[in-house]
Write a structure and sequence with these properties.
- By secondary structure, the protein is of the alpha/beta class.
- The protein folds into two domains: 25-125 and 249-296, D-Maltodextrin-Binding Protein, domain 2; 127-247 and 310-327, 3-Layer(aba) Sandwich (D-Maltodextrin-Binding Protein, domain 2).
- It has helices spanning 2-23, 34-47, 60-73, 86-95, 170-181, 186-195, 204-213, 223-231, 261-272, 274-282, 298-302, 310-327; strands spanning 25-30, 52-57, 80-82, 98-99, 121-122, 126-133, 161-164, 199-201, 218-222, 236-239, 246-248, 251-255.
- Mean pLDDT is 91; it is low at 1-22.
Length: 330
C-alpha cells in the first residue's frame, strides 16, 4: 500500500513539474526579422525572468502553412502569433485559430489598430516603400530614385526591379493585394511591372540584400529591414512613396487553446507596453503607441496611405495571389 501511495505521489509530483515547466515558457511564431526577435526576447526575459521566451522565425507564407498544418493535426504549437499581414488574421479568426484578448496596454494605442472582436491588436507599423542601391559606379541618387509606384514603370528601370515573392512573405502579399484591389492599380499595374522586368526573390532579407549588392538598382522593400541594413553600413537607401503609401499594422494575437495562455498574455502585454515598444523603436521598427518618441512622422504617412479594407483583402487575397502568379508565370 505504501508503495502505491509513493508511486501516486511521485506521479503527481511529475505532473506538477511538467505544469511548472509549461508555465515557465511562451512560444511566439513571427515573420519579424530575427535581430528584432532576439532583442525582444532579451528584453522580455529581463522583465519576466521566470518565463522563457521561445520563437519560431520564418516568412509569413511558411508560418501560415505551418499553422494550418498544426491546426489540422489538432493544435497550433504557438501561444502567440505575430505576422505582417493583418488580412491573415481575418482568416485566422474564421478558422478559429485565435482567442479574444484585449491588453490593458491598448489604452495608448489607436482603436483602429485593434480588431473589433478583440482577437488581435497591431504590435508595430510596417510600411512598404522603395529602396535603391548607392554603390559607387552602379548605384543611383535619391533624386533619380523612383518616388511613386508608377515611377517603377519607367523603361529606365527595365530589368532592374526586385520584390519579394508574395507567396513567401506576408508583408509582400499584403502590398500586392492592396495594390491589386485598388482601382488606381489592379492587374494592369502588375502586368506593366512584369513587362518592365520585375523579378521575384524568395525571401524578404534576400530582396533587400540583392539591392544593397547592386544586383538590382531598385526594390519594393520594407522600411525597417532597409533601415537595419543601412545602419549596418550597407550601400543602399530607402524612402516612402510620395503617394499611396502602403502601411501594415502587423498584428499580435493569442492562439486559441494554447499551452501557455497566461504567459501568452504577458508577452502580448510586454510587446504593446511602452518598454516593449521602445525596444522595437531602438531596432528600427515603428511604434503603435501614442507615448513613445520616434523620428518618423507617422501622421504624415497616414495622410497619404492607400485606402485598404482588411475584410475585402481577407476575402479576395487568394484570388489576388492567383492573378499575380498567373501574370508572373508561377
Amino acid at each position: 500500500m505504501k508503495r502505491i501511495v509513493a508511486l501516486v505521489a511521485a506521479f503527481c509530483l511529475m505532473l506538477a513539474c511538467a505544469s511548472a515547466l509549461a508555465e515557465g515558457k511562451v512560444m511566439l511564431y513571427s515573420s519579424m526579422q530575427e535581430d528584432q526577435l532576439m532583442a525582444l526576447e532579451k528584453a522580455f526575459e529581463a522583465a519576466h525572468p521566470d518565463i522563457n521566451m521561445e520563437y519560431y522565425y520564418a516568412g509569413g507564407g511558411k508560418l501560415v502553412t505551418k499553422m494550418a498544418t498544426e491546426a489540422q493535426a489538432g493544435q497550433i504549437e504557438a501561444d502567440v502569433v505575430w505576422l505582417g499581414d493583418p488580412s491573415d488574421y481575418e482568416n485566422f479568426k474564421k478558422a478559429g485559430y485565435l482567442q479574444q484578448y484585449t491588453s490593458p496596454e491598448t489604452e495608448h494605442i489607436n482603436a483602429s489598430y485593434s480588431d473589433a472582436d478583440g482577437c488581435y491588436t497591431a504590435g508595430r507599423l510596417v510600411t512598404m516603400g522603395i529602396a535603391w542601391c548607392t554603390l559607387d559606379g552602379i548605384g543611383i541618387t535619391e533624386e533619380d530614385a523612383p518616388k511613386t509606384w508608377n515611377d517603377l514603370l519607367d523603361p529606365k528601370w527595365k530589368d532592374q526591379i526586385i520584390m519579394t515573392d508574395p507567396g513567401a512573405s506576408s508583408t509582400s502579399k499584403y502590398w500586392m493585394a492592396a495594390m491589386m484591389e485598388s482601382d488606381k492599380y489592379g492587374e494592369a499595374y502588375f502586368q506593366a511591372l512584369k513587362d518592365n522586368g520585375l523579378e521575384l526573390e524568395s525571401g524578404t532579407a534576400a530582396t533587400h540584400n540583392v539591392v544593397a549588392a547592386g544586383s538590382y538598382k531598385v526594390g519594393i522593400c520594407l522600411d525597417y529591414v532597409s533601415a537595419n541594413l543601412i545602419n549596418e553600413g550597407s550601400p543602399m537607401a530607402f524612402h516612402y512613396t510620395t503617394e499611396d503609401v502602403v502601411t501594415m499594422t502587423s498584428p499580435v494575437a493569442l492562439i486559441d487553446n494554447c499551452a501557455n495562455p497566461d504567459n501568452g498574455k504577458t508577452l502580448i502585454d510586454f510587446i504593446l507596453s511602452k518598454e516593449g515598444q521602445e525596444v522595437l523603436v531602438a531596432n528600427n521598427l515603428v511604434t503603435v503607441r501614442d507615448d513613445v518618441e520616434m523620428t518618423i512622422d507617422t501622421s504624415s504617412i497616414a495622410a497619404i496611405n492607400l485606402p485598404v479594407d482588411f475584410n475585402v483583402l481577407a476575402e479576395n487575397i487568394d484570388a489576388d495571389l492567383a492573378k499575380f502568379n498567373e501574370i508572373f508565370g508561377k
